[in-house]
Design brief:
34% of the residues lie in helices and 23% in strands. By secondary structure, it is of the alpha+beta class. The chain folds into 2 domains: 170 residues, Fructose-1,6-Bisphosphatase, Chain A, domain 1; 166 residues, D-Maltodextrin-Binding Protein, domain 2, CATH 3.40.190. The protein is globular and about 60 Å long. Bound molecules: 7-O-phosphono-alpha-L-galacto-hept-2-ulopyranose and magnesium ion (2 copies). The site of one magnesium ion has 4 residues, from strand 3.
């Protein structure tokens, strides 16, 4: 009897998007990561962002498919490229996809040469990715072992509104360890002050990051990464990108759009002004005052069935190395890429232009 999960069976179960585009997707994020890494530590986050966006767009436009950016760099008039609604790809062939992209996730991290910046992209069939508007999402991200535990214990479920302690108790049991042994990643922001205190009060360990809560989310489904939970509010695009990977890896994201509140230090006037500005656009996405507080789970964030995800490291990360530059444009870059069939690739790509000058090294 062949094992049911041979590479052959995985390949046969891959959908058309995964089959056609997964191998190239990683080259797209690699190109953006290499471009960004030339700007590492130069203190200019906008320029670093710009070059990675350009590199990514050039790569996408070499590929035969019809892509539409659903989560991108902003609206057309604010972002010259990879804006929401932009069509990418040559348009040839019959593969159509929706795209979520963050060409440079962690612009400050790259500009300052600090660990944690990546280039990241996900694709799915049209309608397969939640159109996250440009507002924060509050979220909790846990790995696949926690999802397994929930299935075995239907009364114990991670709940965005539950006290932090209740959620962390479930995670600790699922991972077969003490709460004190857990690591919770959260963005180091004033708005998270009380949540950080709440996490610490449970005894769990907190890892504050100055930016970049997407890859730590993915890390919760990768044993050995040292990250068990991600909490707090961050970008909605980042939440959908995290959910794309979690859908493939079997982990879980719970997220909810956050409109400004007094709790975030805004005045009533500021809140009303922001609502007046954002609600009309949210309404066009089907988001109303009634459903804006709904909790979205992994399935709602990423309803797609043929999902692919790739991320390449720029500065060092939990499991991706930084880009190495060798001279003459030769580079080495670490990535993770995956598809709905269940294949996950950790790749270490070396681009050699000058074959004699850049000998391969293990
Ligand atoms: C969030 C977070 C990202 O930027 O979007 C953050 O999810 C921006 O939040 O990972 P603030 O407005 O609080 O700075 C990142 O850290 C990097 O894009
Ligand atoms: Mg960005
Ligand atoms: Mg980002």
């Amino acid at each position: 009897m062949p094992h049911p999960k041979t590479a052959e069976n995985m390949m046969k179960s891959a959908g058309p998007i995964e089959t056609a585009l997964l191998p190239s997707l990683v080259h797209v994020t690699e190109a953006a990561a290499i471009a960004a890494s030339y700007q590492m530590g130069r203190g200019d986050k906008n320029y670093a962002d710009h070059v990675s966006v350009e590199a990514m767009r050039r790569m996408l436009n070499c590929l035969d498919f019809k892509g539409t950016i659903k989560i991108g760099e902003g609206e057309r008039d604010e972002a010259p490229m990879l804006y929401i609604g932009e069509e990418v790809g040559t348009g040839k062939g019959d593969i159509a996809v929706d795209i979520a992209v963050d060409p440079l996730e962690g612009t400050n991290l790259t500009a300052d040469g600090i660990p944690g910046s990546i280039s990241v992209m996900a694709m799915a069939e049209p309608g397969g990715l939640f159109h996250g508007p440009d507002v924060y999402m509050d979220k909790i991200v846990v790995g696949s072992q926690v999802v397994k535990y929930e299935k075995e214990h239907p009364d114990e479920k991670i709940d965005l509104d539950a006290p932090v302690k209740d959620n962390l108790e479930i995670v600790a049991k699922a991972l077969n360890r003490d709460i004190e042994e857990l690591v919770v990643v959260i963005l180091d922001r004033e708005r998270h002050k009380s949540k950080i205190e709440e996490i610490r009060a449970t005894g769990a360990r907190v890892s504050l990051v100055s930016d970049g809560d997407l890859m730590p989310g993915v890390s919760t489904s990768i044993r050995g990464s040292g990250v068990h939970v991600v909490m707090g509010s961050g970008g909605s695009g980042e939440a959908v990108l995290t959910a794309s990977a979690m859908k493939i890896l079997g982990g879980k994201v719970l997220a909810r759009l956050v409109l400004p509140t007094v709790a975030n230090g805004k005045s009533q006037e500021e809140i009303e002004a922001e609502k007046a500005e954002k609600m009309p656009r949210l309404n066009t996405m089907g988001i109303t005052e009634e459903n804006i507080n709904d909790v979205l789970d992994t399935e709602k964030l990423v309803p797609g069935k043929d999902v692919i995800f790739a991320a390449s490291g720029i500065t060092p990360g939990q499991f991706l190395h930084q880009v190495n530059l060798f001279g003459g444009g030769d580079a080495r870059v670490n990535s993770i890429s995956m598809g709905s069939s269940g294949v996950v690739k950790f790749t270490d790509s070396i681009y050699i232009g000058e074959k004699e000058d850049t000998p391969l090294r293990l």
